[in-house]
Amino acid sequence: MADELITRAGGVCEFCGDAEALAAHEVPPAGPVLLCALCREERPAAADHWRCLEGAAWSAEPVVQFAVWRKLGTLDAPWAVEAREGMVLSTEAEAWAGAAPVAGLEHRDSNGALLAQGDTVVLIKDLPVKGAGFTAKRGTAVRGISLVADNAGHIEGRVEGQRIVILTEFVKKKS
Fold first, then answer.
1. DSSP-assigned letter for residue 144
2. Residue (of 102, 39, 38, 32) closest to 61 by Cα position
């Protein structure tokens, strides 16, 4: 599989084209993509680094399209929103993008309440937001959450205009 991945990628990162520190990165449920350390987020990247996704969005590989679509969804920049909305996904990548959460996967808050797409939750602890330079304060309401399809311990939501990933153990469902 590793040789196939390197051949498919042409020996470079499938996001930015870098040839250094390449490794397979699993993107459930689609499969692996070949990424450099920066794109795997093992090292801090400058904000403008992610502009590489605008070009990678045109990849002919469905798994790369899906990985780019997913990553663009985590970036809170007007260009990223525009790039994501303008993407033309293959049928396969579109199916992954619209896929329901993994069967049997349940997202539960700190009290064990079942969370659903679109719920409102409240932070139960101050949370430093990596890379954004602010702390999400305890008591902050996060409206319209998204469930991370492949990880029951993660949800996504907007805090102070930033789309962030939040651990479910630090939220409680608002009734």
1. S
2. 32
Q: What are the DSSP calls for 57-99, one per residue? A: TT-S-HHHHHHHHHHHTT--SHHHHHHHHH----HHHHHHHTP
Q: Is 65 exposed, middle or buried (0-12, 13-18, 19+ CB in 10 A)?
A: buried
How many other C-beta atoms lie within 10 A of the C-beta of residue 149?
17
- Domains in the chain (CATH in brackets) are 2-97 (no CATH), 121-173 (2.30.30.40)
Those residues with Cβ within 8 angstroms of residue 51's Cβ, 6 or more apart along the chain or in another chain: 79
Total-model pTM: 0.58
What are the structure tokens assigned to 73, written together? 């969804």
In tens, the pLDDT along 65-122 reads 999 998 988 887 889 888 888 888 898 988 887 754 455 678 999 999 999 888 999 9
Pair of tokens at residue 159 = 């805090």
Tokens of 100: 């329901």
Amino acid at 118: G
